[in-house]
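Q: Predict the bound structure with alpha-D-glucopyranose.
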Amino acid sequence: MKPIPELLSEMTLEEKASLLSGDDVWHTKAVERLGIPRVMVSDGPHGLRKEEDVPGQPGVRETIKAVCFPTACSSTASFDRDAVRRMGEALGEECQHEGVAVNLGPAINIKRSPLCGRNFEYMTEDPFLAGEMAVSLVQGIQSRDVGTSVKHFACNSQEHRRMSSDSTVDERTLREIYLPAYEAAAKRGKAWTFMCSYNRLNGEYASQNKRLLTELLRDEWGYEGLVMSDWGAVSDRVKGVPAGLDLEMPSSHGVNDAEIVRAVREGRLSEKDVDRCAERVLRLVERFTATARPDTPWDLDAHHALAAELAADCMVLLKNEGGLLPFAPGEKVAVIGEFAEKPRFQGGGSSHINCHQVTSLMDALEGMPGVTYAQGYRIDSDEADEALAAEALAAAKAADKALLVIGLPERDESEGFDRKHLRLPANQNALVEAVSRVNPNVAVLLYNGAPVEMPWVNCIRGLVEGYLAGQAVGLANKAVLWGEVNPSGRLPESFPLRLEDTPCSLSYGGEGDRAVYSEGVFVGYRYYTAKKQPVLFPFGAGGSYTTFAYSNLRLNHTEMDDTDTLRVEVDVTNTGSRPGKEVVQLYVAPHESRVFRPVRELKGFEKLSLAPGETKTAVFTLDKRAFAYWSVETHGWFVETGVFGIEICRSAEEVILSTPVTVRGTVPAPLTVTEDTIVEDLARYPAKFALLKKAVAALKNPDGAEAEAIGDNDVLDMDRYAPLRTLIAFGERMDHQRLGELIDAMNRV
Ligand code: GLC
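A: Predicted complex:
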């Protein structure tokens, strides 16, 4: 390709406008006259869903055979940046092999409610965890010179009416919960592209939301990549151009290209805005074509094995009474549930992969002595099948232990719709309870993309959250359940006891197209810990076949300015007899605040692999953002001077070690004093408050004698909530003019 400025100078308006929309469902447009090729994009996020024409069948397309890696609900549960990065590297190689320029992922919308049908494809309820995993996946994929498309930007946290719904989110909630992961992907991930969401955000479609796509993403975060629309997300294409939407997908068959040309010709749209979008499309095309390596090998079997390895580290051990797990090879175990033969390992919709291979648990257990199988229930029905149930009970009675493999069927969760409840199919719930009545040694393995209610949780001794762990799921399940691999996953979301306990249970889905995020920053564990609302399993929960001890939590500061960085170290020892991996979780807990803040927020995690008896040190570095909240007064990150708990936790609810640090906020929130400013607010600004004390002292000593100094509390105790205008109650000695002079003096210090 010629240099981009040269190409732009040679292109007609029509040619430039044509670049601003797709050629078809999956390609950018070429400009043959100037030798500009088109490039292909494909889903994502956890496998390559590349569509191709079916030879000999015009118009018929199918997706190629590919590898389905653990979906995001599963891979995020690894709490392992390196594992996610390795998955990204493999995905990048697949894209190179197939000539795909951009993997349409990661999908990082925050899990506002467990009801969201697409939660399987999203990462977590926590913005810090989402950001870390997004950066890891982006860097992994892009390390192979293939782009990513961070989606869906922003606040697409429901499927219900997703193409018209207006996510109404206050400024602080946006900044603290729904934007940080995108900020990380832009600033640290350097994602080649972003994908704007379908929904409106605070009244404006994301695809034409200048505040979002330009003022925030580019002007504030310095993002230099391309923004494409979600498929069919464009409302007013002409408005989207200056807003920062570079590429409409899929093709609008020239209709919107013509709209752009007409708008420029009629003076409603600047050609410079068109040029800027066209330039970003050209840069994407140039970037990929310069590094395309179609000869990149793709060993699907090797990727299958990698998917199995990764999935094993994502599984979350939630219960293991009396060491029921792992099963001993040869032990008599009745495996019950059709999912053990026909596993659910991915979700429905645009991320659905045409797998070249699937390994079920029963495939993986082939030849394992002592194992029996009973179907137990039918995946395609919620109704109990008496014969299947009876067969399962018989199998359970005849075995030492029983493993029930259950989960959500495809019909219960998918892109395109939200769930209405958190229940598993009735036939499965009934079967767990029936089996636990005939065999006391029951373990449950779950295949689900989002939290479910577990009415039988107290009837069983073992529980593993398997999530939707990709096509090699059976290999991973066998490795963990039969003890080859020590489980090390942690829940990246809270599992509530019931739907009514969830933070947005009264408002989720919205009324018509108004989806008000009225729970504010209190999403997930931020809500449950603040409310002291019991949950089934907390964010960050997960166990191991070994045990770990924590000691020697130490900080390099006990007092600091918010401009300093805090180094946190803690020692972790494997006190058991098996090698294992521990996820060390660091939370910051403000002891007090002027604003409503969560009890604690995740600000660090490290996964340590430890041999029996081995001790390692987890090290964290915290900067200002770890202590700050978003101030709607200063419209920036603000650290309030105070004491913060540095907490090392096993979950959002279990603090193991904690130590305080005092942080001094060096940037006071600006205060413009007026007659209505109250005394208590002034007291936070010593120089201003000193002027008030002096004025009050003078008012109290009318004869002008040197007013004895009065203390802060002399003023505060008068009435800390009194506005300055009440000073006029001092009669002739204070009037609006004198008060105005005092206020001017306060605003100068
Ligand atoms: C879908 C999804 C998006 C996907 C795109 C292309 O509607 O929302 O995530 O990348 O269309 O399939």
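A: The mean pLDDT is 96.
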